[in-house]
Amino acid sequence: MKFTRYFSYVLQNHGTPDINPEEYSRMLNIIVLENKIDLLEQIQKRVRHADRKHYLSADITQLRNKLNRLTMEDKPETLIKYKLKESRYNN
Predict the structure, then answer these.
(1) What whole-number distance in Å separates Cα of residue 63 and Cα of residue 78?
(2) Residue 11: CA atoms inside 13 Å, Cβ hemisphere, count?
(3) Per-residue pLDDT, 81
(4) For residue 17, what are the CA distances in angstroms to 8, 14, 87, 88?
(5) Which value, to the nearest 10 degrees, does the dihedral of the CA atoms of residues 11, 13, 14, 19 take?
(6) Radius of gyration (Cα) for the chain, nearest Å?
(7) pTM value?
(8) Each residue of 27-67: pLDDT tens digit?
(9) What are φ and ψ of residue 20, in 5° steps?
């Protein structure tokens, strides 16, 4: 949830970043993916059946791969700076 927490911090302390809609949409997708991963991990902790845990683990891995592609496996601070820069050059 590091991206979600960082984006929330940016919004609270600096307001909405001036980025294009495409980059903003990616930010929201990152937040949704992090929340899905967190939810599945919580469910996985409570599940007792090995088969169900395996399926949840596979789903979590798939979502983490998507998250890594969207975040470019970078830190939240670097990612937001990149998105701001991309938005300035694409406008």
Answers:
(1) 21
(2) 9
(3) 82
(4) 11, 7, 10, 11
(5) -20
(6) 15
(7) 0.84
(8) 899 999 999 999 999 999 999 999 999 999 999 999 999 99
(9) -70, 160
